[in-house]
Amino acid sequence: MKTAYFRSDWYLPALYDDEDVLKADHVNPANGYRYYRLDQMAQAELVKVLRQLEVPVVETRDLVSNWADSALIKQPLRYHRELLQRQLDDAERRIAIVERLIDSGGVMPYQIDVKDIADVRAVLTPLRLEPDYDWSLIDPAYQRVRRYLANCEVEPGLGMWISDSARDDWGEPFDFDLGFTVASQVPDGEGNECRTLPGGRFASTLHIGRYEEWYLAYQAIQAWLSENGHTQRGLNRQLVHVGPATSNDPATYVTEIQVPIA
What we know:
The protein is of the alpha+beta class. The chain has two domains: 5-65, Multidrug-efflux Transporter Regulator, Chain: A, Domain 2 (Orthogonal Bundle); 113-260, Regulatory factor, effector binding domain (Multidrug-efflux Transporter 1 Regulator Bmrr, Chain A). The protein is 34% helix and 25% strand. The chain has helices at residues 14-18, 41-52, 57-65, 70-103, 138-151, 214-227, and strands at 5-7, 26-27, 34-37, 113-117, 120-129, 159-163, 174-181, 193-197, 200-208, 236-242, 254-260. The strands form two sheets. It has an eight-stranded antiparallel β-sheet, covered by helices on one side. It has a three-stranded antiparallel β-sheet with strand order 1-3-2, with no helix packed on it. The termini are far apart. The relative contact order is 0.12.
């Protein structure tokens, strides 16, 4: 019986054949086209996806060779699926920024106000995001602080971040404290610290959108400080008016950016 073939040369370069990643069943000597059996289609699709993800040839070969053992390939495939999802999330973030610039005529609209703010008490826990900036770690950290406050029978106020960077230096670890404002004193414990943050005069603006777009608001504030002869005198604060606890859409998050000024 004649073997049925499909041709995959348009997305499987000869390298994958030469390195024994996926051997063609037949190569046309006249034009070099490589043909694969129909039972190789699934592996060919896997190689195609891994090539698009720039997975090294050696790793691709290991995955294809273990194709029959689902237990061996599930974990690395899950990893590459998460990597692809991060790339998609980053693309969506960039698209959202461009759309906002289009809607605003090329200038991100931020109204800078000066506020005299009283001392604020907050329960905070430290967090570090490595340069891959896995923003999904934020909500679990909030939930840990929320559970601690519940055990202390204290009602949480607004979510709060404190950092010393405007986050325009992507590529470096991001260290900050996050938690909630509280109305009463709370004992320290379980990695949480109750702190009284000094009040004073702050330049403030509202940012609507994803956390990783905050740098746009900070750029607007820094430009305003320069234009109006002010300097920053302490740590940045972010008050979360709408966040993961109340919205499933990061594009609708509402954050008040506060920069202390002199």
